[in-house]
TrEMBL record:
Gene Ontology terms for molecular function: DNA-binding transcription factor activity; sequence-specific DNA binding
Descriptive protein name: HTH araC/xylS-type domain-containing protein
Domain HTH araC/xylS-type: from-to ranges: 3-104
Highest taxon in the source lineage: Bacteria
One protein family per Pfam: HTH_18
Lineage start: Bacteria, Bacillati, Actinomycetota, Actinomycetes, Kitasatosporales
Entry keyword set: DNA-binding, Transcription, Transcription regulation
């Protein structure tokens, strides 16, 4: 069940409306049960969604084809509704701003694996 839910989340990461409620509804379970499943895995639904979105943004910032796309647009593409919020959580997760990441890691690279 958990792997099916994780796949669903990955398929819908770019949907800004992705939430525990929409995930639970799609799998015919209660929101409470969904939270319990994630708690057993040592995280929360919200943290997992944020983590996966951050990973998507981080990867996108390393692609040459995204180099002329604003960081706010990249964040929005991956479901973040606020560029400021995205920048804060990106820095907290990776120790540098999205712009610093793009300039340091993504500059001229085809996607970095990992």
């Amino acid at each position: 069940m958990v792997s099916v839910i994780l796949d669903f989340i990955d398929l819908h990461l770019t949907d800004a409306d992705l939430s525990p409620k929409t995930i639970a509804r799609a799998h015919h379970i209660s929101v409470r049960y969904l939270h319990r499943l994630f708690k057993e895995g040592g995280t929360t639904v919200g943290r997992w969604i944020q983590h996966r979105r951050l990973e998507g943004c981080r990867r996108a910032l390393t692609f040459r084809r995204w180099e002329n796309v604003t960081i706010g647009a990249v964040a929005n593409r991956w479901g973040f509704q606020s560029a400021a919020h995205f920048s804060r959580v990106f820095r907290a997760a990776y120790g540098m701003s999205p712009q610093e990441w793009r300039e340091t890691v993504g500059h001229g690279c085809q996607p970095i694996r990992g």
